[in-house]
Amino acid sequence: MELTSPAFENNKPIPAKYTCDGADISPALQIKGIPSGTQSLVLIVDDPDASRGDWVHWTVFNIPPISTDIAEGSIPEGGTQGMTDFGKPGYGGPCPPSGAHYYQFKLYALSKILSFANFPTKKELEESMKDFIIEQTVLVGQYSRRTT
């Protein structure tokens, strides 16, 4: 399975458009090679370089396995957003206070459709899906804010 973006290459800078310094919208993503038996996909975007530890920028679960393109600034059709560390569901772009941070766009193929009463946190998603991961992949982008 492979996750790519027409907006940036793996381990390369994320354009400011997709950050707090720009339009703060999610970049377009493309998925290839979804394994057979996949019932749903989960996307988790986080920043492991955050000063307090992992910072969650976006979670989307129950993405149908027929999804191969996620349009810029949109929720994958059929997917449900979870809670972020911004205290609400939805995409929150990179906004590091200092230095370069690396942002992980992690995609999981699951053999199950997940069910939650409320907006799950990343921890709740990971706990619910841990025994059902068929395959996973990651796309990494880098961002550092310009200071003047």
Task: Describe it.
The protein has 148 residues and is mainly β. It has one domain: Alpha-Beta Complex (Phosphatidylethanolamine-binding Protein), CATH 3.90.280. The protein is built from 1 helix and 9 strands. It has one helix spanning 122-129, and strands at residues 2-4, 12-13, 29-32, 40-47, 55-63, 69-70, 80-81, 101-110, 133-143. It has a 6-stranded mixed β-sheet with strand order 2-9-8-4-5-7, with helices on one face. It has a 3-stranded antiparallel β-sheet with strand order 1-3-6, with no helix packed on it. It is globular.
List the helices and strands and how they pair.
Elements: E1 2-4, E2 12-13, E3 29-32, E4 40-47, E5 55-63, E6 69-70, E7 80-81, E8 101-110, H1 122-129, E9 133-143
Question: Roughly how many Å is the radius of gyration?
Answer: 15 Å
Mean pLDDT: 94
Between the first and last Cα atoms, what is the distance in angstroms? 41 Å
| Total number of helices | 1
Fraction of residues in helix: under 10%
Percentage of β-strand residues: 25-35%
Strand order across the largest sheet: 2-9-8-4-5-7
Structural class: mainly beta
Which H/E pattern describes the elements?
EEEEEEEEHE
What's the structural domain tally?
A: 1
Write the CATH architecture name: Alpha-Beta Complex
The strand count comes to 9
CATH topology: Phosphatidylethanolamine-binding Protein
Q: Mind telling me the CATH class?
A: Alpha Beta
Backbone shape: globular
Segments where pLDDT lies below 50 for 5+ residues? Answer: none
